[in-house]
């Protein structure tokens, strides 16, 4: 049985490393970032072409089961995979790493709400880690922003006062503390991505008294089968293959 691993995360790479070469897997990446970290084993890169394209691709490639290990905010891909697998009767699993739960964080439902909190609380120095697509709601803010992204955001959606920091995790506690101090940050705005690779900023913010505005995850499609660890996902694949 060939398994499709929808990837783009550290967990997806760890799962591929666990399964390859014993199992017939193919990993899929969206192709958003140049020079992506590649999982072990066969990889395809690029969108499928919506629901219809995914259905066709699964059929053409004789996929017998799908593990969705995309980022918790990759809601469109997750919805497409859930829909198509249900239609085709394909076994389907979502690997969703546990969410963060920092004490004292202001929880919001969207990046637009996060921008409202920054404006209402009159924060002046913002560390924005919501990714290149999460910058636009802050365009009209007069605060200063440190925008940490893997690939540069569209120049037309930037707030007027900002610095772009191009980098890719993981990030350590000492470096995160130094960054918050050096840039005199008073609020961290982040998605609730979960995972250890980018978690140090939360402890650094807590220890330095920096406020946190946390964007909650989009809900998973109703009724999907979900696990939270690579071990559980590997067990599920083994059970499918028998
Ligand atoms: P998205 O909004 O859910 O997906 C948009 C479209 O990108 C999908 O409809 C699909 O195109 C394509 N796509 C997404 N993931 C794909 C995959 N693994 N393989 C093939 N096509 C994929 O997702 P996104 O926010 O653009 O995220 C894209 C990728 O970046 C994901 O793999 C995700 O794990 C990773 N990522 C996302 C975030 C985030 O905050 N959103 C952060 C870090 C990494 P078609 O409709 O043409 O099939």
Automatic annotation (TrEMBL):
GO molecular function: precorrin-6A reductase activity
Keywords, ordered alphabetically: Cobalamin biosynthesis, Oxidoreductase
Pathway the protein takes part in: Cofactor biosynthesis; adenosylcobalamin biosynthesis
The keyword Oxidoreductase is annotated on this UniProt entry: yes
InterPro entries the UniProt entry points to: Precorrin-6x_reduct
Pfam families: CbiJ
Keyword ATP-binding tagged: no
GO biological process, one term: cobalamin biosynthetic process
PANTHER family, alphabetized: COBALT-PRECORRIN-6A REDUCTASE
Protein name from the UniProt record: Cobalt-precorrin-6A reductase
């Amino acid at each position: 049985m060939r398994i499709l691993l929808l990837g783009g995360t550290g967990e997806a790479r760890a799962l591929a490393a666990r399964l390859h070469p014993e199992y017939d897997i193919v990993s899929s990446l969206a192709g958003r970032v140049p020079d992506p970290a590649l999982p072990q084993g066969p990889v395809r890169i690029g969108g499928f072409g919506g629901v219809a394209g995914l259905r066709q691709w699964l059929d053409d490639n004789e996929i017998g089961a799908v593990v969705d290990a995309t980022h918790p905010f990759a809601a469109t891909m997750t919805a497409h995979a859930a829909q198509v697998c249900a239609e085709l009767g394909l076994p389907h699993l979502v690997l969703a790493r546990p969410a963060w739960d920092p004490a004292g964080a202001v929880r919001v439902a969207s990046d637009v709400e996060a921008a409202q909190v920054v404006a209402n609380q009159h924060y002046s120095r913002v560390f924005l880690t919501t990714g290149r697509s999460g910058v636009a709601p802050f365009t009209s803010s007069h605060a200063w922003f440190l925008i940490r992204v893997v690939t540069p955001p569209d120049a037309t959606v930037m707030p007027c006062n900002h610095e772009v920091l191009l980098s890719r995790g993981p990030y350590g506690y000492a470096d995160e503390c130094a960054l918050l101090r050096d840039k005199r940050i008073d609020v961290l705005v982040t998605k609730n991505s979960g995972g250890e690779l980018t978690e140090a900023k939360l402890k650094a913010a807590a220890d330095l008294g920096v406020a946190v505005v946390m964007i909650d995850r989009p809900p998973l499609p109703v009724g999907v089968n979900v696990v939270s660890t690579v071990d559980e996902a590997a067990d599920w694949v083994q059970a499918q293959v028998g």
